[in-house]
Amino acid sequence: MQQKKICFIGAGNMSRAIIGGLVKSGYDAALITATNPSAAKLEALAADYGINTSHDNLDAASNADVILLSVKPQLMQGVCEALADVIDGKLLITIAAGIPESRYHDYFGKQVKLIRTMPNTPMQLGLGMTGLYAPAGISEDDKAFAEHLMRACGDVVWVADESGIDKVIALAGSSPAYFFLFIEAMIEAGVQMGLPEADARTLAQQAAVGAAAMVKQNPDLTPAELRANVTSKGGTTAEAIATFEAGGLRSLVKDAMGNCIKRAEEMAKSF
Ligand SMILES: NC(=O)C1=CN([C@@H]2O[C@H](COP(=O)(O)OP(=O)(O)OC[C@H]3O[C@@H](n4cnc5c(N)ncnc54)[C@H](OP(=O)(O)O)[C@@H]3O)[C@@H](O)[C@H]2O)C=CC1
Ligand SMILES: O=C(O)[C@@H]1CCC=N1
């Protein structure tokens, strides 16, 4: 892929995940800089991935071709305002949830070249999923760069309308946490049944990895067919599945995802 000088503004969980994925995919660490107010996360990134670090957003952004905005949504306005003089002509990529693309033009006080993306933490392992949205006027070259950057850390989908980003949050940005919760609950139940915690974790995590790989590697089978292959008539799985269905798992999942989107929409009104 084309390699450009890229600066991550904010060196938290998500920057770490993307930087880890990029470096593991062969992106030149010397072209990557991350900024952060406190030192510990920068020191860990430099030690683990050999990237450049800085406490100075302005200096780091001035020296980059591409700026990836990776601070919490409530800090975004102040961060953008302070960078307004050094971003002309540069490609901006934001990963923030809930801030509409139009707001960035207000923050910078001018029209900017900005692509909205919604990645997730498995980017760190090259197993990420990113949704991308580019407004009209963004060049094919800039779109291709943003896509290649995120593809280095996993799979990508483009959404035609900005509202699609909120759906990506519900399906992929937030969803690793849903699966962690499910695994957490299985481990807790296993421990309550008397298993050592380490064994309960090994059993649950390996089942999750295996099940996800089976979904991915059998595109001709639906998840329902894969489930049917596990579920012997009158057997053990049928009892467990019936319990989930009776407990309203499907509507719970739908409500959770709907509330995730609702929160993104609320955030969009408050920024
Ligand atoms: N976590 C996730 O799974 C996902 C998050 N996102 C989005 O990614 C963004 C970042 O989230 P996440 O990585 O989880 O958050 P984190 O809090 O882990 O990271 C944000 C980082 O920004 C740093 N920071 C604060 N102020 C500044 C500043 N003025 N200049 C530079 N850096 C600053 C913080 O430093 P310090 O801690 O030292 O104050 C922190 O390290 C959010 O907008 C979120 O919506 C998107 C997809 C998934
Ligand atoms: O919880 C959040 O708001 C962010 C966006 C997607 C994942 N974490």
Summarize the structure in short.
This protein has helices at 13-24, 40-49, 57-62, 73-83, 101-108, 140-151, 163-173, 175-192, 197-217, 223-230, 236-246, 249-270, and strands at 6-9, 32-35, 52-54, 66-69, 91-94, 113-118, 128-133, 154-158. By secondary structure, it is an alpha/beta fold.
Structural features, described:
- By secondary structure, the chain is of the alpha/beta class.
- The protein is built from 12 helices and 8 strands.
- It has an 8-stranded mixed β-sheet.
- It is globular.
Index terms:
globular; single chain; 271 residues; binds (2S)-3,4-dihydro-2H-pyrrole-2-carboxylic acid; binds NADPH dihydro-nicotinamide-adenine-dinucleotide phosphate; 8-stranded mixed β-sheet; 55% helix; alpha/beta
Number of strands: 8
Q: What share of residues is helical?
A: 55-70%
What is the residue-averaged pLDDT?
Answer: 97
Q: Ions, cofactors, ligands: which are bound?
A: NADPH dihydro-nicotinamide-adenine-dinucleotide phosphate, (2S)-3,4-dihydro-2H-pyrrole-2-carboxylic acid
Assembly type: single chain
Q: What is the strand arrangement across the widest sheet?
A: 3-2-1-4-5-6-7-8
**Uncertain runs:** none
Tell me the major beta sheet.
8 strands, mixed
From N to C, what is the helix and strand string? Answer: EHEHEHEHEHEEHEHHHHHH
| Broad structural category | alpha/beta
What is the terminal-to-terminal distance? 34 Å
Radius of gyration: 21 Å
Strand content: 5-15%
Enumerate how many helices there are, as a single number: 12
Shape: globular
